[in-house]
């Protein structure tokens, strides 16, 4: 092999003086799987890629990005009949203009449905009241309108009772089933802790009911409502006031009509790449691997997942793979799945690890990880844990410093310290809700929020 051939087969960054030494080493391992892969099956496509084509043999941090989309060309016209449950908070805090706006939005919601559709109207405070699941004939619309007019605000917040009633109402419905939960406060009656409430929503979603969670005002628990929407495969909405509810409920009807798949899950498996965290999403560890619940996809609204990984110590020139299995159910029929594997290889060269990484994906991962800590810091500030919030922001600032393309996040951290530090308790709640909504973009969930 002549000197020119050696040069062409080596990395371009190697100097001519090192060529003879490199010539005595074995050539690089060609991985079975590339650093990027794609798979199309049924109505869904999944694309995946890694930020690093090589990692250090002693271990490296890296990111994976997955994009899942519903194929537009296989999507029929959005005209299918739907079954809906509108679950509305009528606790004392909803009194006044807030309840009037909610009533007006509910009336409009009813009129968006036709005789093929079904609706259960459910309200909760200390107790739960509801209509049956009714076909939206003209006569039944009159019944539901009357129930909406009769709603008054008083008492506590029995959120779990409302969710349970909605699940029961939709249990035997056909076609696309969707529950829309609207609340302006934190649960105070029944199941009040996050794991119990998420479990209730999980049971509904496992039964093919999509759950959307909408928060009105700034007093509700934003991270709880996001988690409910995530586990329920639906949308999360921060509505500064109830005037926006009418528009959002209209979008929920459109989403239900255009639904083609549900119960979408992404399962990650690897012996060599450890899932450290998935910014902005919750991970359920099972014998199958790390399971993520994704939104029930709509046409033209893909979802992205960013995964923070750590490679394990391995021998040089080892291939380290990450398998991603996408599982879902069509509205009618059996569960389906498709899988891709992306991989990297190990080297004993720190500089090569840096030069071979994809900077744009690395920056997106770093930004997502830093943003996750900013959201957690806002929640800590709301609880009065100022030391915890400060530590989280310090950590976020360090993460943003790991990529030149993410350095703007450091200025955002400084601004957040100032704004939250000067704000009153109620102002901090509003700042938190705005931050939670804004950061959905960094987490790849920009199509999952209102």
- Oligomerization state: single chain
Helix % is: 25-40%
CATH architecture of the largest domain: 3-Layer(aba) Sandwich
| Global morphology | globular
Structural class: alpha/beta
Q: State the total count of DSSP E strands.
A: 18
CATH class of the largest domain: Alpha Beta
Fourth-level CATH superfamily of the largest domain: von Willebrand factor, type A domain
| Uncertain stretches | 1-27
Radius of gyration, Cα only, in angstroms? Answer: 25 Å
How many strands, what sense, and barrel or not for the largest sheet?
A: 7 strands, mixed
- Number of separate helices: 13
How would you sum up this structure, described in words?
With 450 residues, this protein is of the alpha/beta class. It has three domains: 28-74 and 261-357, Sandwich (Immunoglobulin-like), CATH 2.60.40; 82-258, Rossmann fold (3-Layer(aba) Sandwich); 360-448, Methane Monooxygenase Hydroxylase, Chain G, domain 1. The protein has 13 helices and 18 strands. Strands 5, 6, 7, 8, 9, 10 and 11 form a seven-stranded mixed beta sheet that branches. A six-stranded mixed beta sheet has the order 3-18-17-12-15-14. Helix 7 links the parallel strand 10 (210-216) and strand 11. The longest helix is centred in the last third of the chain and has 25 residues, at 359-383. The radius of gyration is 25 Å and the shape is globular. The chain starts with a helix and ends in a 12-residue tail after the last helix.
